[in-house]
Amino acid sequence: MGFRKRRGSHIPVYIDDAEAEIPTNNVSWTTHIEATTKKAHRRLNFLTTLGKFSVSPTTLTNVYRCGVVSILSGCITARFGNSSIQGCKKLQRVVDAAQTVAHTNQPP
Predict the structure, then answer these.
(1) pTM above 0.90, yes or no
(2) Which of 11, 36, 88, 102, by CA, is between 20 and 30 Å from 66?
(3) How confident is the model at residue 98 (pLDDT cuts 50, 70, 90)?
(4) Is 40:71 a contact under the CB 8 Å cutoff?
(5) What is the distance of C-alpha 14 from the center of its chain?
């Protein structure tokens, strides 16, 4: 009896009558970090707009927590552990900018 992995084809998964694409291991952390920073920048833009309208600091802090921190805290240990120094600096710049706009020093 052999317990070797067989290189066979997988059973296709269908979502809404369309075959789902099988992910590959070619995804790099750089691509993931760039997508995360783009999403965080979009929410940071919203936070900046609220700050221009003199919204209360409590509201800015809540938007910061719900909008920016929720994105950055997902898999943060894996992201920082496996990413390059450039990627870590990009994420840290987003956090610093969001904290400046929200007038808070809370970690993400």
Answers:
(1) no
(2) 88
(3) confident
(4) yes
(5) 27
